[in-house]
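Lab notebook, bench 4. We co-purified these components, and the gel suggests they stay together. Before we commit to crystallization screens, I want a quick structural picture of the whole thing.
Request: model the full complex, all chains together.
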Amino acid sequence: MTRYIIRRLLQFIPVILISTLIVYALVFAIPGDPIRALAGDRPMSDAVRETLREQYNLDDPFLVQYFKYIWGIITALDFGSTFNGRPVTDIIEQRLPVTATLALVTFVIQTIMGIIAGILAALYRDRFFDRFVQVSTVAMVALPTLVIGFLLQLIFGLNLGWFPIAGVNNGLSSYILPALTMAAVSTGILARLVRSELLDSLKSDYVRTATAKGMKRTRVITRHGLRNSLIPAVTFIGADLASMMAGSIIVETIFNLPGLGQQVFASIQGQEGTVVVGIVTLFVLFFVVINLIVDLLYGLLDPRIRYE
Amino acid sequence: MSLSAPAAADPFAEKKSVLEVDGLVKHFPITQGIVFQRKVGAVKAVDGVSFNLREGETLGIVGESGCGKSTLAKLLMRLEEPDAGTVKFRGEDFLSVKGDELRRLRRKIQIIFQDPYTSLNPRMSVGDIIAEPFKLHPEEKPKQGIRNRVKELLDLVGLNPEHINRYPHQFSGGQRQRIGIARGLALNPDVIICDEPVSALDVSVQAQVMNLLDDLQKEFGLSYIFIAHDLSVVRHISDRVGVMYLGKLAELGTQDEIYTAPAHPYTQALLSAVPLPDPTMRGAREQIVLQGDPPNPANPPSGCRFRTRCWKATEICATQEPELISRGQITQLAACHHAEQNEKVVPAHD
Amino acid sequence: ACGGGDNGGAGNGEAAEGVEGGGTVSAYNCEPQFLVPANSTEVCGSWVLGSLFTGLTQTDFDTYEPTAGVAESWDTEDNVTWTFTLGEDWTFHDGEEITAQTFVDTYNWAVDPDNAQQSANFFDNFLGYQEVVDGDAEEMEGVRAVDDYTLEIELTEPFSPLPDMLTYTAFYPMPSVAYDDIEAFEQAPVGNGRYMMDGEWEHDQQISVNRYEDWAGENPGLPERIEWMIYADVDTAYLDVQAGNLDILDAAPPNRRTTVEADFGDNAQDFDTSAFTYLGFPLYQEEFQDADVRHALSMAIDRQLIIDNIFDGAQTPAENIIPPDLIAGNENTCEFCQYDPEAAAELYEEAGGPDELTVYFNSGAGHEDWVEAVANQWRDNLGIEDITFESLEFAQYLGLHDEQEITGPYRLGWTLSYPSAQYAMEPIYSTGASSNYADYSSEEFDDLISQANAETDPDTAAELYTDAEAILLEDMPVIPMWFTNYQVVHSDRIDGESLFMDQATFTRLEQVVVTEE
Amino acid sequence: MSEIHRPEARVEPIDSTLEPAGEPAKTKKVEEASLLADAWRSLRRNPWFIISGVLLVLFLSMAIFPQLFTSTDPRECLLGRSRQAPSAEHWFGTDIQGCDYYSRVIHGARNSIAVGFIVAIGTFIIAVVLGLVAGYFGSWVDAVISRFTDMVFAVPYILGALVFLNVLESRGVREVAFVLIIFMWPTMTRLMRGSVISVVNSEFVLAARALGAGPITIMRRHILPNSLGPVIGYATVFTGIIIGAEATLTFLGVGLQLPAISWGLQLSDAQPFLQTVPHLLLFPVIFVGLTVFAFMTMGDAIRDALDPKSKK
Amino acid sequence: MTESQTSTRFTPGTRPGDAPLLEVKDLQVEFRTKAGVAKAINGLNFTLHAGETLAILGESGSGKSVTAQTIMGILDMPPGRIAGGEIRYRGDDLLTMEEDSRRKLRGVKIAMIFQDALSSLNPVLPVGWQIAEMFRVHRGLKRKEARAKAVEMMQRVGIPGAEERAGDFPHQFSGGMRQRIMIAMAIALDPDVLIADEPTTALDVTVQAQVMRLLKDLQTEFNMGLILITHDLGVVADVADKIAVMYSGRVMEAADVYETYGRPGHPYTQGLLASIPRIDDEGGRLRAISGLPPSLTDMPPGCPFNPRCEFATDRCTTERPELRLVAEGHLSACHYAEDVYAGTATRTRRPSPTGAGMIAISQEAPE
Ligand SMILES: Nc1ncnc2c1ncn2[C@@H]1O[C@H](COP(=O)(O)OP(=O)(O)OP(=O)(O)O)[C@@H](O)[C@H]1O
Ligand SMILES: Nc1ncnc2c1ncn2[C@@H]1O[C@H](COP(=O)(O)OP(=O)(O)OP(=O)(O)O)[C@@H](O)[C@H]1O
Ligand SMILES: [Mg+2]
Ligand SMILES: [Mg+2]
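Here is the predicted assembly.
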């Protein structure tokens, strides 16, 4: 078991190396000269361009660039810098808390809401609440994130004034609307997953036993049924946490949260390989940790699952 | 029936062994802690079991609940990997074969699971469940067509062939058990390991099933390992009987030896506790009531494992582990320093 | 407006000030790329730098003529050698005095290739620029401090718009601390402008400046404090202005046009700007070399219809190339910019224009709709059935241009960095110019521009520029589409009368009057 | 060593001894049943299945034969009638370019449904195969697959899309679908793996192994049907998510290229006009919603049908 | 004993003055299946008094577990459906009771041991927790106390190393141990009525004896009524007070335990008793009742046992025999019950030599 964890931790190394390589390659593969784009309509002089290209190793072949980058990290913990000279570590330091908070709030919202909604939908199967969950999931999926975000801003930010419309200046409440936006689709999916898994497990004998023990229906469901149905939910939540970055790109933009998503998107567009890779490395680390946790949770949720 | 009849000569002495089991061991780790689990010990589920099973023979296995019978069965099927020991099927090392070879051998050894419900795929109809062996081993495809054969099998085990399209959850416990039996029989294997195959059946159906097993054996020279708690059933069907206690064989002998003259105190206690289907005998029989709690398989007593509950235990039992051997007069093998045949404990009707 | 607004934060003692001026203004901004003057090429940074710095000259926004900045006056005989007399009271925010040497140092630093300043090539007509770039010289010969307060600039050729050009961000002076650690400097630039940094640049969040009370210029800034709130999305900023969390959004998103009235009523102002959008032709492709083809394509576009329906009127149809508000700007209409589908069809037919077109534009910048509308009009009016689109990321898009791989009309835009007709034309249309993506070349035009640049009399120069423009409108290397009309929306705290956006699309925050605290 | 095979006799005789004698076994015709056949039978009687089926058929025919639903040319656009509200002439009003929106939405079905379908099916297949293999074999196979999944996860799909779609010559349905598949399979794969892991230790799997079933058979017959539930549930919603992702790509400038017509493009175009011209958003949203609804309901019905216990 | 033949109520062993603890009247349960409605229970009647042990014997699939589930109110509905009848606990009809009050009885007053111990235990919760839950929820004990109680219960049912193993999960226990855990859970709160559905099938005889002793003790201590569903006729003989024999969803015979074993009043019971393998019997063929039970979806008219009955006549195929008193405290549902009871019934058919069906005995071959 402990060995299992150690082995998993060791697996991080190739994963991170390879995925940074992939990402680096992808950024490298974007056609067009990033330095050229920096200046906009009015081109900069060749001399300046040369200097900049050299400064960012852009004239080196791809692998050389990559190794220079990795070498910088290994020897000097230098994660590179943006084209406007900000060290990537600075950017991460500044933006990570924002994205982390956003992810955390989203996670809390969607987990709690999703699971509760799923439980209620299963409890009241085919009744109003169940249909409501179904229909709102459809609506959430059909409405583009941008629209959901905008509607939330309009309703809760502008008209009701409950939450700030944008920015991060109001502490946690700044994150409520963006988190809701980001959680919208996942909450629906989660609720449906929980619902159907619960319904499945409600058919099982041990749930019958719990009933026969005289437990209240809610207890039967939450204590006996739920645990057995959580594996897909936990997987989904884990995967969703991992893919939150894609979501954060848009949400951070609409809600003007200076987080990593925003940055990564800007850097992708600006072809700032080092920044993208730096941030993505962070995300890879995050994913592998999350996935490790998820796998460990499997064992917790279902003791029949053994780790070799 | 004469209780004192000398143990009959072993009728299978000439027969070849189909299954040779030597020193099988399986320990399950006991862990503590939630994320960083530590191993704090091991349940010694099977702890050095050896026997051989011969062609056409039925070996009954009885023993205390939790003494490792099902684990033994799973080990024999290679559904659990043993920690030590060997299993030979017709002289071939069964534990080292892989892939197709393993699959080929598995066709010859079948198991009927103790738990009739969890061992049936809830999403397969009974027809599919019983037909599965034929699908897996196309060379065994019955002449009359798989479906007809499945119906026959259902009928054989006393299930209504019309229920071929039902799903396991639609059956009663005994009916499910018979589905498992039908599946085990389908391929006409050489060895069937029956883990409590008839425990959930009413006596009439049980009689049918046992007759069936009997017939099959006569017809094809099948061998059975028959694990059960109902000692009458075991006696009825077995040629030899092994008594297990805490992961080890306590006694092994012919059915006659064991039932008429048990030598191991545990066997004696077991036999004395058999309830007889006769209310008038209530309380009339003398039972050997074992003192104390069954020991913890994670931490079995030193020496003889039974000594903590044994009325005969002496010093030596605590220090020296008795081997499974035949001692002096006693023809069967008994793992007891004080093995002594005792005929009085054997229950008798009237 | 009391809901959750936490503007200012610092002690609010301004109420006592009474008269005009004072108060805090919060304004929308995007995240600047750079805050080093010679390195800043985009709006977000330039806007901030404009408050932090004052160059040798400034623009008079009434006339778009250059007025005194650090230089009190200037003089030239031949448009080649210019003498600037500096004011003597100018200091940087950290107290460092500004002398002619300050400018010499700054300019030399800016062109030094090691410093890789993106705007370095604005100096390319300074004498000695090329040598510095080539590494043959340390300093530009053409920039000289005659004495503490006399600066001499010598150019390689006559260039009348120099005082206009010097208003541009790239020519702001920098204090000596900048050279020690330019990165640290960038986080909190020390300038000589109306406003000084309050704290550091909070990336992606805000930049705050306070009024610099020792500013030596004529008309100091009115608001006591300006806070640029950095937004990633304009729509969000729009809502924040609506909610009273933000005072000024300089460019309401175009799709809001129809609701601005309802959302803001009087709190919205329209401004014409020099932001020019055009559809260029790759003249290196054969099928576009016939001017008639270009004329026909231009005449087949109903600009007003597109502006009305796609932009809700947020553009002014371009019938010229020089923004009309400039000195040289005029209303003279462009013959081939008039919508005339029949004539266009005929002309196109005659000229044998291509029957399939690929239209290029950069993606993700909101050009899809109007480009599609143009294409629809071409299809309807000219019968070009097969029109496809190629949209690319900007970097790639420019790459295609550099490689001359564009095969059809392309969208580009041009905003004037300094208000001069020269700048509206020369970089784009003169032979071999840096932004001449159309590969246009006309000797006549080049001559006229040179003449105008050499002309010392502003009025004559303006005429010459107008003549040059006429050639462009006739040759039509690009189809002028429109000048963007910006709509500035603001909160109730701002006096709408005082709002003004200049040609370069900068809202002049220093003139804003805060009415309510 | 020689096989000890018993004589042929073994096939038959059991019945001869134990044949149900007396009354001839009732030869009631019992239909052949398997999980799938049963599932199909119960599906046919499930009204929700019918409803969703009809909807899907409707959308599919819309995708294949848009002419059946509208005779208006979706490309006939008159800027002069831009953004008109729904009217008798233009049921769904007109869009920014002044095209008939009804006809646009109908014609949008093809690309959107194609992308949604291809991606959903593609990811589903990848997920099921990889999830099964990883969950079943565990140990290093799982490690390799799972780590590989992590890596793909780590690459923001937007980055991938930007790169691939920019490099590719054209950006049609195939290209967009391809990129989405490449970057979107990990979630579903993990879901599948998770549910495989939770059934792989079941006793009936042991039973199948004891019968001599190989990994493929076990996976296919025993694990797959018992672990598909969550994935089906997710995949059906996923179709909608894909249509949304297509819109996002468009928003980022790398989606389907003009002059293609798709719901994603429409959603993306309509966003700025949410307040002023809501019908531009409303209609594609309704269509996407109905598609998602149909898929979801169908998924539920299939899931139910695949569970013998839930048969009513 | 009161004469209540009018209703087919079965009341042997009634102690005058005792109100019955549990009364099942004319219970009917059906399942919907593809092939039609399967009538699993067709008019079932029995009564249980405090302190009494009622053994329900019967054909596998005759509806014993369904009956138990129906009493507990945990039948899956659908596909199950209660088509009629009453189940009275101390006079209150459970079937019409509010769900909430019924729930309060479950586990506390009426408890059940399930037949299928592995699937009936929650695989993801430690067994100790599952037992402790009873104390925590119904007795309001604290976590610690409840756990201690749970361990105590595990010890009582003879699980070795209970203290350490309380935290283990069901799959880590052997079949018999799981069964004992189920038992521990069911008797945790000393219920009034305990329904034990094959509680000892997976137990060896020593443990079985121990468990049965435990149940007996509880019974005397708390005057518990025990419904023992089992196939083990040995156990029944040892512990039951009265016996109901079920076949095809109805009670065929009901009597005192001595009566049933000594003088069965129904051919099915006779057949059953004859099938028992004897411990002192070495081998040979066992006598089984030939044939299959009728399909529940299309029940033959008349006596459900008639196709398999040695004594069946034409009457048996047309007329359904009701449960009636044949002797003091002895009920049977056979037209010829008296004859069977007295051992004078005439055999009309005998089992086919294949052991499957029945063959009519020809006129000239009198038995
Ligand atoms: N997966 C496992 N993990 C830990 N312990 C286990 C596991 N499987 C079985 N055991 C332990 O091994 C011992 C033997 O179990 P096994 O199932 O073989 O008993 P058994 O003889 O079949 O008993 P029964 O007659 O009750 O079925 C028991 O103590 C059991 O708790
Ligand atoms: N869900 C169901 N659908 C259809 N038939 C069912 C269902 N559940 C049970 N049955 C049928 O009801 C009958 C009674 O089942 P029950 O489980 O009560 O039998 P039992 O008497 O407990 O048998 P056993 O001794 O084998 O456990 C059986 O014939 C069974 O096939
Ligand atoms: Mg077992
Ligand atoms: Mg049962």
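DSSP finds ten helices and twelve strands in chain B. Worth comparing against the SEC data before the next meeting. Residues 149 and 339 of chain B are 49 Å apart (CA to CA).
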